[in-house]
Hints:
Layout: E1 5-8, H1 14-28, H2 34-42, E2 58-65, E3 68-76, E4 86-94, H3 103-117, E5 122-128, H4 132-136, E6 141-151, E7 154-164
Parallel strand pairs: 4-5
Antiparallel strand pairs: 1-2, 2-3, 3-4, 5-7, 6-7
Amino acid sequence: MSSVGVRRAKPGDADSIADVHAAAIRERGAGYDEQELRAWLANVHPGRYPIGEREAGIDVLVAERDDRLVGFGWLDRDSAERDESTAEIVAVYVRPDAVREGIGTAILERLEELAREAGLAELVLVASKNAIDFYRSRGYDPDETVALEMTANVSLAGLRMRKRLS
């Protein structure tokens, strides 16, 4: 297995990010029914990812192995809806054929590093059902069950989680 590099996303990565995102939902979206999965997938498109908006407090990272994009992550440092010492991990997704190889951990660790560099004290996220154990094993504590609105009439159950940064 070759090594994985994590870097900032570039505008040309948007299609590959959407491909990883959709594949992860289709293959790893355990715990959600077909209607929920369709609604979740309806929100996946290349224009969705705020690549290049670092000045707005957003970091989108990608993981590559052998010149192939195998994962992505998204950190939102804009505190408009949170305490200004808290950032949100919006996404960490890995291509299904590359799970359990440390890629999600590498992405998450780099997002946490960026949050620390920005002087933030805490991270929050909403974990889908299939990702709760991943985040829990990396120090995130459950906070509350939430509903994420995907379409006008379909929401996904998720778990808001928190981690204090040291």
